[in-house]
Amino acid sequence: MRAEITFNGSESPAARYVGWAPVPAQVRLADATGATAPVTVQLRNQNTAQGGQVEFLASDTSAGQAQIQLSLSVAGEPANIRIGGLFGRPSSADADAAVEVADASTGEVLGVTPLMVRIRKNATALTAAERDRFLAALATFNDRGRGRYGDFRNVHTAAGSPEAHGSTGFLPWHRTFLLDLERELQAIDPSVALPYWRFDQPAPSLFSRDFMGAPNSAGTLQFSAVNPLQFWVTDATPGIVRPTRFNTQTQPARVSSEADTMLLGAQYEAFRQLEGDPHGSAHTSFGGAISSIPTAVRDPLFFLLHANVDRLWAKWQWHFRRFDVKNPDTFSAQGQAGDPGANRAGHNLDDTMWPWNQVTTPPRPPTAPGGTLAPSPLTSAPGLSPAVGALVDYQGILTPPTRLGFDYDDVPFE
Amino acid sequence: MDISEYRRQFEQEIEQAAQQPSFRDLVERSGRGAAPDTAPAGQAAAASQAAPADDDLTAATAVLRDDAADEQLRSAALQVISRAVEGQPELIDTLVEVLLDTRRPEAVRLEVLDVLQQISFRMAAFPAKRPDYLAALRSLVDDRGAELRRRAIGILAREKDEYVQRRLIEDLESGSEALVPTEKAIQYLGYDIHAEYFPLLRQIAEKPPTPEARAEAVRLLAADPSSAGLLVTILSNKNESPDVRRLSAIGLQSADPGQFQEHARRIVLDDDEDDQLRATSITGLTHFADPGTLSRDDELTGRIEQLRAESSSPQVKQATAGYLSRHGT
Asked: Do A218 and B215 touch (CB under 8 A)?
């Protein structure tokens, strides 16, 4: 007998990635030789001592459990369950988790399916191998200034700034920007998840020559001889300039703490003040490219900084249980541009976001670099030209299909 | 992990943070008089994070104008003003006024500049204020405060400001460091590199006032394919410092990838080469060289396998492992 599991509605190994948010999985007997009646099987982690761990849910509304029993038909009809990563036990390498299907009565193993519990982690917690895979994917994507990274660079400029900053859309826009980059990196190496720079804590390993570089006396970053970022080029100019205004080896950046950020308030309108501090303060904790809007994306630290801003939003959502998009406390600008009292285009719940909507007529900027949002083999959400509201329930807590396919190491699915 | 317990611990952290002194507490402690609101400390701290009350804003503006205010209080006051700016964009004018006031200590003006940059990242109304802000920064280009001058020039350079570019070029041509050190002037020009800068940069690379200035010039010359010859000359000269040779190799990769591949190969095959330069060469080949050419190069592959087995340099070993995992047979 042989059993098999498919994830995210696909038989492809490219779909075998989960976060904390459970994903749909199907289990079936691919070969029922010897069975004359339904076979009861048990699903469990193959190795509970190491590697990523998952938990099993009978349905979207049931609790996760370490093992689950299912009855599989001899005819090969699939049984539907949900599988999510076990909070606190992420993978550190591709396919280092595995689900084992065993015959519940004999113990015979009927199938093992490797997968990855792929989670965005604190950059200081990455293994050397995780770090190096991320750097290699980033360097490949930029390809010495010849690659698609240039589109990301050309989006975050003074012209595009009103789409991304200064109003309610700041958080959803940047969540999309990060997701777009992460999906591009995963197309190069699917084991990569975007790490975040927890800027309210010291991060000496991040600001090292082996990772995001350490500045010389002029503020130009130095990299180790094995770091591919030493070949970083943007705007036809090699190198990254990032003088620091705090001691990166012993101090956090000059920002409000995570707890202070939560204290901004339980309503989105209050919380979005984080755009100034800690977000703006994190940018201006340095000199160099990252400290000005028109040049910030020249420094790839931009994406680790913003992953932390997004993590803070995710943590605030979890803390205050803010996932219902129709609740103004979850997102304060309901409706769409043009409605009475609405914000400018791109900052209301039902507005699509530039550049992914490819709209280049006023009030949008005259060009939309980069095309639509990169697709994912795991989910069709939030769509290729997403609306602001599609970025809110990122774990699919209220509507599972809206799950975006990422999670943070310290923000559970609950 | 028990998520209920995790949530309880997180809530405790937030409760503790709420006990920290608010701006009002700091004002009271400084002897500037009690703030009118007598909410408990935790509530005051939480309230201080939202849009500030008029009383707080008045107190914050007074603190900003007081050179004797201590740093913690002034920072808190600036955050109060920063949070209020979205509803009252005219506060930007107040901040710019302090920034330009040469009677004020440089430390205060630097802190104000930081807050203005922070605001520029978020505020919908900032584009309307941007011309005035940039004009203010231009007036700081000759300020007596070296750090203030440097930061203002840096911001303007990132905005591709023609005035500051012209001033930097003038200084470089005359050999003056009146505005900023030579290496910083070169670095700032790198935010908007123009072909007409390259002859001057080549001149600095060949007759540098300092090693730092040379390093910056070599870095920017990578944007100029016609400077590939100079980069090859530096790279090939074993009497040059390993650092500048490595910088030349990196620059050559950008200026002329074909030549880089050729010279990187030579460096890897040379028994008498610097290990850092060798590791950089292997890393460049691993990630950016033409894979077809590499796959046919048995001599190079053999050499890299040998280095993997025999090199005493951890970085060379690491670089060879990366190469062989991508291009090995």
From this structure: yes
pLDDT for residue B39: 44
Would you list the domain boundaries of chain B?
210-329
What ipTM does the predicted assembly reach? 0.93
B191: its two tokens: 């935010």
Query: Min CA distance, B157 vs chain A (Å)?
Result: 10
Provide DSSP, A291-356. GSGGGGGGSTHHHHHHHHHHHHHHHHHHHHT---TTSTTT-S--S-TTSTT--STTSSTT-B-TTT
pLDDT of residue B46 exceeding 80: no
- What is the DSSP secondary structure assignment for residue A196, as one 8-state letter? B
Q: What are phi and psi of A27, to 5 degrees?
A: -120, 135
Question: B214 contacts in A (CB within 8 Å)?
Answer: none
Contacts with B226 (C-beta within 8 Å, 6 or more apart), sequence order = B198
The mean pLDDT of A306-329, rounded to a whole number, is: 98
Give the separation between CA B317 and CA B204, rounded to whole angstroms: 36
Whether residue B297 contacts residue A242, with contact meaning beta carbons closer than 8 Å, is answered with no
CA nearest neighbour of A362 among A339, A345, A386, A340: A345
Q: From B250, which residue of chain A is nearest by alpha-carbon distance? A: A231
Chain A: give the shortest CA distance to residue B34, in Å.
23
Q: Using alpha carbons, list the distances in angstroms from residue B201 to A144, A377, B206.
A: 21, 48, 9
In the three-class reduction of DSSP (H, G, I as helix; E, B as strand; rest coil), residue A90 is classed as: coil
